[in-house]
Amino acid sequence: MALLDLAYEELKQLPDTAVEQTMRFIQQWKHTHRLEREKALKNTCGGMNAEEADEFIQTIDEGCEQIDGESWISNK
Description:
The chain has helices at 3-12, 16-45, 50-63. By secondary structure, the chain is an all-alpha fold. The longest helix is centred in the middle third of the chain and has 30 residues, at 16-45. It starts with a helix and ends in a 13-residue tail after the last helix.
């Protein structure tokens, strides 16, 4: 029997109050688990606000080599 089936069989034997407590626990765990995943994602991915992104793009535009996309043409 699968684990989910075993859990269902156990839940069927509990009084309604215990089933309600179990449901609240599951819902709370899902919410907490989601928040933990979001926090981990945010910590590993980082991010920039719009002002930082604009400054980053401007720095790249001003500080990096400018490439002439037609420099490979021999007539030029």
